[in-house]
């Protein structure tokens, strides 16, 4: 177990953030994760980090804050918080986030407080998030178990057993315990990049998603779009992997091109609340109707945040036979669930164009890129999902049949 | 135990910081203390706190930072750190610090790195510390056990037993477990204030300390000095108790009036290293010779920080029969050891004058107040300590005989 933990820490540092000699590393994690943060910090110093800065949070204190703080604080962001992120982003630091939160952390708290908090925080950190999504610096997100989360995933087990099972699932998902994970990931990155390049070569103008859940959705893709897999290049000059694990190949859609209906295939943990059985109806790119059998008020609050929240920002393809999907575990955590399933995101897009380096935000928007304070992934993959691409020449090409790549 | 912990948390909030309705509360603590921070936060919200902000640190990460970070980082302080403290200080927030650190946390690290870190941090936070020592806002320091600290105090016990014994000692020292601690502390504050006022009424011009360790030290006191006990008044308008526990009555000395020799009576945990058997020789207020049998290099590095580090900033009287002293435990932690023993501090003075409210820093210095980036308490009390005061009229009055108050 100790060796697995060390390998995982090293994977996060060497493949996830790809920490370079002389680079500052910023780690965000829960206070209860300190034991693992220490291992990540050791691995970062081993990689030559200049310094390791840690930002600890705590689930219970976060929940208490939402339940008990003065209502006015949710419209404010203390100035030192954007100063913190700006300072390290400007240095080209490597940002590592270790997740472990309860998927229902904010159950029973006021959706209005959550919405106002998201608006004020997203606005205060807009330039940081813009830089992050534009890969101005390397960043990565990974996860470790905590009791509340593990017990949600494995409700029939004791807390200790649930944590053990969740560790096993995470190690399997991130390829720890099968040899040198860094070497395994290098190979994986090359394989996925080849598939992404093959998709980009088609330059599909349209994608059609269909399955027996009722999904019947058409999306259009902007000119010179680029399908991206793990192994992105930061403007600091290094490659990094933003999510550990990752199985997705993704691209931005044209903002106003989406038409039809899509059904989510998994529950979504959104702002510490579960939203179940989502159905979206689109017209001219916009979500004109949002439905859900549970947590609809949280979904609606998120969609209200700004105009861009009702438009799509990401299309991501994940085979139904991906290793994480095959585990057949509902993680209630987007980092894992999104890598078990094709998904879309509403809100801000990543600028995945073949030629983005010198483009301004305005030019990117003119090319069809959606902007918003939010970015929320939701899972739509099923065993029977089919995706058909249409090329500029009008040729129809099967991309997915029965939930898996055929292209 | 749970009830004791809750009582302790409430004591820290209601008596220590004396949190008011609508006030922001800032808690600094180690990540491993999160379980107790949650109780303090609950107590703060119970008291009507507007919001609770937490700043977690971690001993192991701090040690790693001193051992492995790039040497240049010890001369820098990221801008967001002073911004953090300034922002909350300007709001009149209540600052709570929960200590638990290993007294030898930085053993074996480079004293030069520690010194440069102390200089850069003290400079960056000078205005915050000035405000704190001038009681611009309420602040308090308390402690909870952690394994490394507890095992240092009780080296013959298992870690679990050591933690249990240290909890017992802390609860005894802070009067938890004997009824309502808030009521007990209200009475204690009144008793100690009466004694401090009696000392101030004498307006001693000189104090002479003597014992069989070899201490033979004369200090002079500035005009209109004020002996202060727990229960200080913040400029935000509320009383607070800066240290939980506290048994001391203290005053500032005249900067240049100290002559003679003083021997420390306990080891000192200074910057994560133990300094043992300190002997200081003073001339015209200045430490002209510093000796120690262990950790002298750390003591010297601290005295080198600036000119004011070699002058005294505090005289504190604690009876040898104080409750904490009677436990006969060497805590290796100033918060406890200083309340078991008379002590002095070298470095920055608290402005303990009868009339300070409208004085500038320059006027305070002209009246004999020492300024420095450092403030380090060291213990000098013994069972045979005698202290004699001399009044302006030349009358000699016994203040301490055989280690205890007689005045």
Present the secondary structure layout:
2 copies of one chain form a homodimer.
Chain A: H1 2-16, E1 24-30, H2 34-46, E2 51-57, H3 59-68, H4 80-90, E3 94-99, H5 111-124, H6 126-133, E4 139-143, H7 147-153, H8 159-173, H9 181-202, E5 206-210, E6 216-220, E7 232-233, E8 239-240, E9 249-251, E10 259-263, E11 268-270, E12 273-275, E13 279-283, E14 286-291, H10 296-303, E15 312-317, H11 323-326, H12 334-337, E16 343-347, H13 361-366, E17 375-379, E18 386-390, E19 396-401, E20 404-405
Parallel strand pairs in A: 1-2, 1-3, 3-4
Antiparallel strand pairs in A: 5-6, 5-18, 6-10, 7-8, 9-15, 10-13, 11-12, 13-14, 15-16, 16-17, 18-19, 19-20
Helix pairs in contact in A: 1-2, 1-9, 4-6, 7-8
How much is the average pLDDT of chain A? Answer: 95
Distance between the termini of chain A: 39 Å
- Low-pLDDT runs of 5+ residues of chain A are none
Q: Determine the structural class of chain A based on helices, strands and strand pairing.
A: alpha+beta
Based on Cα principal axes, name the global outline of chain A. globular
Task: Using the CA coordinates, give the radius of gyration of chain A.
Answer: 20 Å
Strand order of the largest sheet of chain A: 14-13-10-6-5-18-19-20
Main β sheet profile of chain A: 8 strands, antiparallel
Largest interface: A-B, 34 and 33 residues
What is the total tally of β strands of chain A?
20
Tally of helical runs of chain A: 13
> β content of chain A, as a range?
15-25%
For this entry, what is the oligomeric state of its chains?
homodimer
Secondary structure: helix percent of chain A: 25-40%
């Amino acid at each position: 177990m100790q060796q697995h933990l060390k390998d995982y820490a090293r994977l996060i540092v060497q493949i996830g953030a790809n920490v370079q000699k002389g680079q500052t590393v910023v780690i965000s994690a829960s206070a209860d994760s300190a034991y693992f943060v220490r291992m990540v910090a050791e691995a970062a110093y081993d990689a030559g980090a200049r310094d390791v800065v840690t930002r600890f949070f705590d689930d219970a204190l976060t929940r208490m804050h939402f339940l008990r703080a003065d209502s006015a604080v949710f419209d404010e962001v203390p100035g030192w918080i954007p100063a913190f992120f700006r300072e390290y982003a400007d240095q080209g630091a490597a940002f590592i986030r270790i997740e472990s939160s309860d998927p229902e952390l904010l159950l029973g708290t006021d959706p209005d407080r959550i919405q106002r908090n998201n608006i004020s925080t997203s606005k205060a950190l807009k330039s940081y998030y813009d830089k992050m999504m534009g890969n101005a610096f390397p960043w990565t997100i990974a996860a470790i178990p905590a009791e509340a989360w593990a017990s949600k995933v494995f409700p029939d087990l004791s807390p200790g057993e649930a944590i053990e099972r969740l560790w096993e699932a995470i190690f399997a998902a991130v390829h720890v315990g099968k040899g040198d994970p860094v070497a395994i990931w290098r190979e994986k990155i090359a394989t996925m990049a080849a598939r992404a390049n093959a998709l980009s070569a088609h330059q599909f103008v349209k994608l059609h998603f269909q399955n027996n859940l009722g999904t019947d959705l058409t999306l259009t893709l902007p000119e010179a779009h680029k399908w991206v897999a793990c192994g992105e290049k930061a403007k600091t000059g290094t490659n990094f992997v933003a999510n550990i694990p990752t199985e997705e190949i993704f691209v931005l859609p044209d903002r106003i091109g989406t038409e039809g209906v899509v059904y989510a295939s998994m529950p979504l943990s959104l702002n510490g609340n579960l939203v179940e059985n989502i159905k979206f109806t689109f017209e001219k790119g916009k979500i004109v109707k949002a439905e859900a059998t549970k947590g609809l008020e949280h979904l609606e609050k998120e969609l209200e945040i700004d105009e861009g929240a009702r438009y799509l920002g990401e299309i991501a393809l994940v085979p139904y036979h991906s290793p994480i999907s095959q585990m057949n575990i509902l993680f209630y955590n987007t980092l894992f669930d999104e890598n078990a399933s094709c998904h879309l995101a509403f809100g801000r897009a990543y600028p995945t164009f073949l030629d983005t380096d010198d483009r301004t935000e305005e030019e990117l928007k003119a090319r069809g890129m959606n902007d918003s304070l939010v970015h929320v992934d939701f899972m739509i993959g099923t065993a029977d999902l089919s995706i058909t691409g249409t090329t500029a020449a009008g040729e129809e090409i099967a991309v997915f049949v029965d939930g898996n790549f055929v292209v």
